[in-house]
UniProtKB/TrEMBL annotation, chains A, B:
PANTHER family: HTH-TYPE TRANSCRIPTIONAL REPRESSOR PURR-RELATED (PTHR30146:SF148), LACI-RELATED TRANSCRIPTIONAL REPRESSOR (PTHR30146). GO terms for molecular function: DNA-binding transcription factor activity; transcription cis-regulatory region binding. The keyword Cell membrane does not apply. It comes from the Bacteria. This is LacI family transcriptional regulator. The lineage of its organism: Bacteria, Bacillati, Actinomycetota, Actinomycetes, Actinopolysporales. The keyword Repressor applies. SUPFAM superfamilies: lambda repressor-like DNA-binding domains, Periplasmic binding protein-like I. InterPro entries: Cro/C1-type_HTH (IPR001387), HTH_LacI (IPR000843), LacI/GalR-like_sensor (IPR046335), Lambda_DNA-bd_dom_sf (IPR010982), Peripla_BP_I (IPR028082). It comes from Actinopolyspora mortivallis. Keywords: DNA-binding, Repressor, Transcription, Transcription regulation. Residues 3-43 form the HTH cro/C1-type domain.
Length: 331, 331
DNA sequence: CGTGTCCTGGTAATCGTTTTCTCGGAAGTT
DNA sequence: AACTTCCGAGAAAACGATTACCAGGACACG
């Protein structure tokens, strides 16, 4: 790897001048500029990032920690973040926490260690890396889920009332016993959606609800089992609110195995409007979350915070909207 | 940020000793070890990554450059890469090239600049960053698509014969005029799939084919238009081979708009077995590519190459398999 | 003509580690 | 007891950039 010294030598100037030229600083004699530029070109010089970052005491990189790259909700967020970050000259490193608090902590830890300019994360909600974050001076933004204590900005979706609305929708469409499959205890989005569901039931005068609720990981396999259990009970639900799109696929598989058809036999509304949701059999009713916007808003907040030190902690809440399709239409 | 100096001072030892302790090196007196450890703990010391990387002349990071985070094929690759890399102590930074050669070049460039330990990329196939890569000493592996000149290992899928097989499958199922929607000219996978399709046709004695072919970007919108065009021609195809899963969704939408049903009206086989493929209406016949394996194999090759300098350039070809579902069953 | 100001570009300090020397003392050998 | 060997830990030299500081020359002004 060629260094700035070799470039300086070849161009017959000092390293300081090379650095100035390459960073477009100051006024350097135009002939020297030309000499430096050609020397750098000829040698294929490429500045050493770590050295530069060390000296400058900052790194033009944002860390984005999400729980699942294979979930379209998170990839849409990631695209939003990337679009904003990239156009401001930052790179984004994407990390998968798999909803595992240890993995999350470990990623937060390396992000801090590498001295990234800022961190966006969608916290698992349990122990999380919050102490780490609040201990450091590095700006961060929580996406989709709030971060227990630790300051920082937060971008949320009003998922509780979306869940309530979806539940009422099921009842209005004629289903009598909506059930709910939500995420693990302690994960804020899982709790909120459950809470919204319960409120929705109460609003329409139903109360004996907890029996119709199952919790599982935000994955297809867990949802498959949960759906089986629920449907095999003595008084099974006649419809389901499912807390995310990955789980929804698991539930659909279970229905198919049992020879049941969503909509006709079991009503269904799931969170997240993935690109394929309208093409399933039957088309899936969803709560569409503004995932891309979560990303752009979060990234913008982070960049602002990186610019000016301090500022109060803000919380932005975006809203979701119900898209009713055939899976919530009784036969 | 606390530095190693402050830790050393607090522990009453030299920075060298602190460094040794923290890296588990040599034999350091156990009492000193204890003093250092508690000092580091008390100060919340966290080594400065850039400084360490500068001194060590390497960074425990792999760059993975793919063309679309929102495509399940690539996210599956990415998970494969991450699993292997992570268990070997490397982090993975994920970059989206959007199949734009400029963006790709730019990401390759920053990866080199940041002196990552290795690069995995699925090249757009056109100009690419190949000169950059072959110019540097940084090991790299091409995934899914070969890299024009530049050495390095390559992990491919035998997508040509998979396409041929899929085409023959359509004919065997009774379709008479299979068409093809493939990716942009110059992108290797697009060319191979087209080539396989043409071979498949020839193998069953059909030749007037080019009219039934459309090219577009590997995105839903392009595929939607392409499908519309094809189906509106005077002699439209009675079935389609679609070159990836994102496009397949676009085609399905178009079919739905036109009131056509895949399988019954227009046969369809698409590349990639996304989690939702079997749940579409109708279930989609696919060419399942071993995406996760591409990731693990590629990452393993890269790690090997990072370990021992040099070694011949290898090419690994994995095979795909056809999964026939209802979308390739005529009504 | 001398002195002050400005401007350009070089010298060297600096960022925070790791690692090579080097040195002092303990242990072992004869 | 003298000499070698070894070992553990500190001093200091890297790593490759940026940038504060300084030197010297050109120019203006009194």
């Amino acid at each position: 790897m060629t260094t700035i010294n070799e470039v300086a030598e070849r161009a017959g100037v000092s390293t300081a001048t090379v650095s100035r030229v390459l960073n477009g600083k100051d006024t350097v004699d135009s002939e020297l500029v030309a000499r430096v530029l050609t020397a750098a070109e000829e040698l294929g010089y490429r500045p050493n990032g770590p050295a530069r970052n060390l000296r400058r005491q900052k790194t033009p990189v944002l860390a984005l920690i999400i729980s699942d790259v294979e979930n379209p909700f998170f990839t849409a967020i990631s695209r939003g973040v990337e679009d904003v970050a990239h156009s401001a000259g930052y790179s984004v490193v994407l990390c998968n926490s798999d909803d595992d608090p240890d993995k999350e902590r470990s990623y937060v830890s390396v992000a801090l260690q590498e001295r990234v300019a800022g961190i966006l994360l969608s916290p698992t909600g349990r122990t999380s890396g919050s102490e780490l974050l609040s201990g450091s001076r590095i700006p961060f933004v929580a996406l989709d889920r709030p971060l227990p204590d630790a300051g920082g900005d937060t971008v949320l979706v009003d998922t509780r009332s979306a869940a309530e609305q979806a539940t009422r929708h099921l009842v209005e469409r004629g289903y009598r016993r909506p059930g709910c499959i939500t995420g693990p205890r302690g994960v804020p989005t899982a709790e909120e959606r459950l809470d919204g569901y319960l409120r929705g039931l109460r609003a329409v005068g139903q109360h004996d609800s907890e029996r119709l609720v199952r919790r599982c990981e935000f994955r297809a396999a867990g949802a498959r089992r949960a759906a089986q259990e629920l449907l095999d009970t003595e008084h099974p639900p006649d419809s389901l609110l499912v807390a995310n799109n990955v789980m929804a696929l698991g539930v659909m598989e279970t229905l198919a195995e049992k020879g049941l058809r969503a909509g006709d036999d079991v009503g269904m509304v799931a969170f997240d409007d993935a690109p394929w949701a309208g093409l399933l059999d039957p088309p899936l009713s969803v709560v569409a979350q503004p995932a891309y916007d979560i990303g752009t808003v979060g990234a913008q907040l982070l960049l602002d915070r990186i610019g000016e030190r301090r500022r109060g902690n803000t919380t932005t809440t975006l809203s979701a909207r119900l898209i009713a399709r055939a899976s919530s239409h009784p036969g």
